[in-house]
Design goal:
The chain is mainly alpha-helical and 384 residues long. It has 18 helices and no strands. Pathway: Carotenoid biosynthesis; phytoene biosynthesis; all-trans-phytoene from geranylgeranyl diphosphate: step 1/1.
């Protein structure tokens, strides 16, 4: 997740046309072998995944996921009708167009991937993207120096207003209209705001359990928001829980990759988004990270972190091809591109302290037809 650069004012109505600010890159895995999991029957595979994740102290079926899945799969058409936003169609068209432009400018590859989706799904994804980006910018944007808990409290109240059909500006109106049309629950949105709170009070994570919760809040939540919009393929033979778990795992993998890509930049800001106990296992201290020296211990530590991120990407594949066919392209694009960031870290000899791994434009363009082909694969092929 790399939400966009939009400021938040608690005192006056935001001018929707003029509030797009300069973009800023987001900052933001022990040793689990992904290849241990994927060659057994679905039932045994599920058990194996559960066991491997439990080793890390992370329950496979996250209680928050269970809660969100239950709520979002039990929203009826009657519930959605009760949410009717009743906005003027021309106003909504303008609001969604603003969201589209932001998504196109700041998430070009993802935006292109949405072009196969139905118009209604496209608009909804753009609206969610903008809300996530604005939320992230509260902590990491140009006005971050003025951020405090009261600002996040007001932003959370504003979220409540959106879900209560009382939007504050055009961007809010687009999201309000989206929740009127799709079975979205407020829980993942609130959890993302909680992730922003974590960013204001934590710059160290004692272990992976703590880091996992951070990754869930700031990125895993995006997957939970997106599934109701993208939809599950009618021909899918797996449960909604499986698809939601896959979406969560993709968010976790993406955020772990962001962290690994940006270690050096975060160190300059006095932040270490790495499990402290695992650093200690390799004889690495915060001071070593701040010194930005790539040692053999650092390379070995990075190998384990990259292995973990790839493990989560492999889990994400379990559900990616069970989404609605028209919605799979952006998901597969994300999977492939983020894996290439991990490849780039390896190609830099694990120097993510003084170098920033990136995927060039040419490589990105090459991945598009590959991800498109994967998006067309039958759901049954992805699980068996």
């Amino acid at each position: 997740m790399c939400p966009a650069a939009l400021s938040y004012s608690s005192n006056s109505c935001l001018n929707a046309r003029n509030e797009i600010l300069s973009s800023k890159k987001c900052k933001k895995n022990l040793p689990i072998r992904a290849d241990q999991v994927l060659t057994v029957s679905p039932k045994k595979r599920e058990q194996s995944i559960h066991e491997l994740l439990s080793v890390q102290g992370i329950a496979h079926t996250h209680r928050r996921v269970r809660e969100v899945v239950w709520k979002q799969t039990n929203v009826t058409n009657e519930n959605l009708c009760c949410r009717n936003s009743r906005f003027d169609p021309m106003f909504l068209d303008e609001a969604y167009e603003l969201c589209r432009k932001i998504c196109e400018e700041y998430a070009k590859t993802f935006y292109l991937g949405t072009k196969l989706m139905t118009e209604e799904r496209q608009k909804a994804i753009w609206a969610i993207y903008v809300w996530c980006r604005r939320t992230d910018e509260l902590v990491d944007g140009p006005n971050a120096d003025y951020m405090n808990n009261s600002v996040l409290d007001r932003w959370e109240q504003r979220l409540e207003d959106i879900f209560n059909n009382k939007p504050y500006d055009m961007f809010d109106a687009a999201l309000t209209d989206t929740i009127c049309k799709f079975p979205l629950d407020i829980k993942p949105f609130k959890d993302m705001i909680e992730g922003m709170r974590m960013d204001t009070r934590k710059s160290r994570y004692a272990n992976f359990q703590e880091l996992y919760m951070y990754c869930y809040c700031v990125a895993g939540t995006v997957g939970l928001m997106s599934v109701p919009i993208m939809g599950i393929a009618p021909e899918s033979s797996v449960s909604a829980q499986t698809v939601y778990n896959a979406a969560l795992h993709l968010g976790i993998g993406n955020q772990l990759t962001n962290i690994l890509r940006d270690v050096g930049e975060d160190a300059l800001r006095g932040r270490v988004y790495l499990p402290q106990d695992e650093l200690a296992q390799f004889g690495i201290r915060d001071e070593d990270v701040f010194a930005r020296k790539v040692t053999d211990q650092w390379r070995e530590f990075m190998k384990e972190q990259i292995r973990r991120a790839r493990f989560y990407f492999n889990l994400a594949e379990e559900g990616a091809s069970h989404l609605n066919k028209a919605s799979r392209w952006p998901v597969w694009s994300s999977l492939i591109l983020y894996r290439k960031i991990l490849d780039a870290i390896e190609e830099n000899d694990y120097d993510n302290l003084t170098k920033r791994a990136y995927v060039g434009r040419a490589k990105k363009l090459v991945t598009l037809p590959v991800s498109y082909a994967r998006a067309l694969s039958l759901p049954s092929l992805a699980i068996q």
